[in-house]
Amino acid sequence: MKKVTSVFWIALALVLLAVAYGALAPTNFAEVTGNIEGFLTTSFGWYYLLIVSVMVLFCLYFLISPMGQIKLGKDTDKPEFSFATWVAMLFSAGMGIGLVFWGAAEPLSHFAIDPATAEPGTAEAFRESMRFTFFHWGIHAWAIYAVVALPLAYFQFRKGEPGLISATLKPLFGDRMNGPLGILVDVIAVFATAVGVATTLGFGTIQINEGLAYLFDGIPGDNFTVQMIIIAVVTILFMISAWSGLSKGIKYLSNTNMVLAISLLVLVIILGPTLLILNMFTESLGAYFQNLVKMSFRAAPIDGENRAWIDGWTIFYWAWWISWSPFVGIFIARVSKGRTIRQFLFGVLMIPTLISFIWFAAFGSTAIDVQNSGVDLTGLLTSEVLFGVFNEIPLGVVLSIIAILLVTTFFITSADSATFVLGMQTTNGSLHPANAVKLTWGVAQSSIAVILLSAGGLDALQTALIISAFPFSFIMLLMMASFYKALNIEYKAIKRKR
């Protein structure tokens, strides 16, 4: 542990304080964090809508700009991973477990429980449910990740800077980023990563528990003992993977994730309402692009009911993706060496977005079709909806087994990737953080999940994570400005040499 920086100790202390608060006074913790989140959502919803739209435009600009030909690395560097493995890594770290958790549940909610503007259960609510789900999980989300990943990869692999968030701001602030200001920036990133993955471990454990309870009569649902066993097994597996390194453990897990995900997706398309799925995907894709600008700036300032929906869904998601961006962005940057900026942005923005759209069209359409057939899924918990859908289509048990395996492998990959990222960020951006540091963070993440599952503080910690998005969003804006400044200087120098 000699190589750890002060960021390690400060961030770990803050995480432990937040967890202690959530475990010892869960009601008060939930009230305080809920009030802060409510204030930020209500007062700064306009800000989130604007900055995320700016991030999308920022990425699209560099996608088509001549500067997109510049490589994330030296001109002679080659990509470390094949394109397929790289996409699998992006997808697994960026959204994986969330797609399984929300794939059927979110479109169903927008259709039958809480539509954006339509009447629940109507054809318009069906169309709206898919359009807004595409919106929340589409290009905007991946642009948020790209805004963190792109500057990191550029400064780390082309300019030789440490793989730290603070290092990307040196063109603006110079050596001041080597002092307390830089430590503050990196502590915010580490806190968001540690808390984000811990909450995901908790929610992933709940879904695995519900799936096992669905498959096996002897296993109780929502049972703390079962959840403890799940976390223990998963922790052992992801620590073994973390110990084996990036090019083995995470690489193989990510490829396994994609095989399982594609298998489950294809089976649902075949066994579910195939024609409905294909038609809804086609129509929703067109509706998404037709309404993209309108949805991006929809604030409903004089419509209280619609405003509440936007706060609860769109603003929540933009804050959620921002809060996850330190972890996902750092990981994406680490595995993207050797690709040009244009290749990077095409891969990060377009491929995972398309996969997500197909996924939601398949699972969402199937869930709504089951609901319309007379089976009420709206009374199920979010973690139960997927298994409720599988119960109504052929080979439901087989699909449930694959889904549990997929949640587990996504679960392991997220935790494994997070220990790697946390290790990097607390050892001065090392590309190969010490196993002892990764082990410490791995045990810390699992312990946090166990404590909060026991005390009932998981939702409040998730709220605390979303609050962290607000200060980090300003860091992201500075990263964009810093990246543009440095890249523009280099591009002008390249043009002068020609």
UniProtKB/TrEMBL annotation:
Keywords: Cell membrane, Membrane, Transmembrane, Transmembrane helix, Transport
GO CC annotations on file: plasma membrane
Regions crossing the membrane: 46-64, 84-105, 134-157, 178-204, 224-246, 258-281, 315-333, 345-368, 393-415, 436-458, 464-487
Membrane-topology descriptor: Multi-pass membrane protein
Record carries keyword Transport: yes
A GO term for molecular function: transmembrane transporter activity
InterPro entries to which the protein is assigned, alphabetical: BCCT_CS (IPR018093), BCCT_transptr (IPR000060)
Protein localization: Cell membrane
Family, as annotated: Belongs to the BCCT transporter (TC 2.A.15) family.
Record NCBIfam families: bcct
The protein, known as: Glycine/betaine ABC transporter permease
